[in-house]
Amino acid sequence: MGISESVVSGKKDFDAVVIGSGFGGLGAALSLAERGLKVGLIETLRYPGGCAGTFERSGYRFEAGATLSSGFSEKQLFKRWIDQHHLDIELEWLDPVVHFRTPKLSLDIPSSRDQLIESLCALPDAPQEGIKAFFTHQTKVADALWALFDDSSLLPPWTLRSLLTHLCSLGQYRPVLKDVNTSLYKVLNRYGIADFKPLTLYLDALCQITVQCGTHEAEAPFALSTMDYYGRGTAHVIGGLGKLASELCKAIKQCGGEVMFSNRAKKISP
């Protein structure tokens, strides 16, 4: 594909063009570059990372949005890229990972699911049996779906091997299928805990962060999976998530790709 000369001085030909250097664009560009394709990554801003970038003003660094990310445990995607491309990244592991506070509630959110359940069950008037049953179901859904991100070969396009793996895992996917087209709120209601405010307030906040809507709108399989966000290799990148984004840009260039900042894509023609 050729990028319009109005965007980049001189015509440039690429096998693939990625527009936007948020982490989705960075991941796409690096994955393609690793496969030997000539990749062009275009970003309208002066820095990468999108809503999880880090920018500078008057000599100070600011996070544009997210300050934590998952994916840093062994065999997870960011960890593999850090090791494979020798990225200059230093991590800070936090526990508790975050502190959730409302006018009437103060709750540490640990990296351990069991500790979180214990903390919730210790709150006044907690429906303990419902909470435990809900998290038993949540664990099954999260384990099934997070496995897809820990092993990207299970995602499309599928090979014969990945299809056979999925067939052998049909039993594991059953809890996921049960909640398709169901809101997280309805699942909470199923276990009789939809009126337990400490949990629903926390889950509303978490869903807003991860799937950009509340428990009444969030589709249950995705929301139940993102409930594991703080316990799946989640850490703080020292220097901000923008440091990770910048290091991924270096990896793209090392693989033969080109990263173009302050360039708004106006036209792409075959």
List the main descriptive attributes of the protein structure presented here.
270 residues, alpha+beta, three-stranded antiparallel beta sheet, 10 helices, 12 strands, disordered N terminus
Question: Would you give an account of this structure?
Answer:
By secondary structure, the protein is an alpha+beta fold. Helix content is 41%, strand content 14%. It has helices at 23-34, 77-84, 113-121, 128-150, 160-168, 170-178, 184-190, 197-210, 220-226, 241-254, and strands at residues 2-3, 12-13, 16-19, 39-42, 54-57, 60-63, 91-92, 98-102, 105-109, 236-237, 258-260, 268-269. The strands form five sheets. A three-stranded antiparallel sheet has the order 2-1-12, with no helix packed on it. A three-stranded parallel sheet has the order 3-4-11. The chain starts with a strand and ends with a strand. The model is unreliable at 1-9 (pLDDT under 50).
